[in-house]
Amino acid sequence: GLRLESSLNAVAWYAAAAWRRGADITRGFPGGRDIPCVEMTKTLPPLRLEIDAERAPDVVAARAVTREAFVRHAEADIVDRLRAEGALVVSLVARIDGIVVGHVAFSRVQVCGVNGVLGLGPIAVSPACHRCGVGSRLVEEGLARAREHGAAAVVVLGESGYYTRFGFTTASRFGIRYLGADRHHRHAGAV
């Protein structure tokens, strides 16, 4: 829950916003002046994270999150093109209490002539929600849905420290090379 110390003149405002009054306390300030305060507490319901298939009303919010996460338009433009071409096999949004805070795309790719391979990405999470598990949940749910769609494999161009936790390994183990990638960004994994 939340806890704060309120001056007496703000207690009514906090009480109207569902804060509960606690103990009366006194706070000393520089110069020797004491101010009477009240401890106020509020219990918040847990945030509800939902991962769901992207729907038409989500497109604008998913684009905004992708632009915010990458601080540029390129990745959002890629997703728009993939969506317009019907190439998105899996497109998921993450919502916290109904607000879109993340997006992941899985699209068809050609790798060494193998059919049924999906590319993961881009994945975007609002910076305010970084390190809260939103991206991990998007990847996990996306991989599960990729399996449901019969994906033979999933490839990703990304940070090894992040993607190995989902079972991705270095792409070269499968004879896959992406010439534009450096040694830290070559990962692929079988679904």
Structure description:
The chain is of the alpha+beta class and 191 residues long. The chain is 25% helix and 39% strand. The protein contains 5 helices and 10 strands. The strands form 2 sheets. Strands 4-5-6-7-8-10-9 form a 7-stranded mixed beta sheet. A 3-stranded antiparallel beta sheet has the order 1-3-2. A hairpin with a 2-residue loop joins strand 6 and strand 7. Helix 2 packs antiparallel against helix 3. The longest helix is centred in the C-terminal third of the chain and has 15 residues. It is elongated, with a radius of gyration of 23 Å. The model has no long low-confidence stretch (mean pLDDT 88).
N to C succession of SSEs: EHEEEHHEEEHEHEE
- Unreliable segments (pLDDT under 50, ≥5 consecutive)? none
| Largest β-sheet summary | 7 strands, mixed
* Estimated radius of gyration: 23 Å
Strand arrangement, major sheet: 4-5-6-7-8-10-9
N-to-C terminal Cα separation, in Å? 40 Å
Q: Structural class of the secondary elements?
A: alpha+beta
Shape: elongated
Integer average pLDDT: 88
User: Count the strands?
Assistant: 10
**Total count of helical runs of at least 4 residues:** 5
Proportion of residues in helical segments: 25-40%
Q: Strand percentage, roughly?
A: 35-45%
Q: Short summary of the structure?
A:
This protein has 191 residues and is an alpha+beta fold.
Q: How are the SSEs placed, and which strands pair?
A:
Elements: E1 2-7, H1 11-16, E2 20-29, E3 33-42, E4 49-53, H2 59-70, H3 74-84, E5 88-96, E6 99-111, E7 114-125, H4 134-148, E8 153-156, H5 160-163, E9 169-170, E10 187-190
Parallel strand pairs: 7-8
Antiparallel strand pairs: 1-3, 2-3, 4-5, 5-6, 6-7, 8-10, 9-10
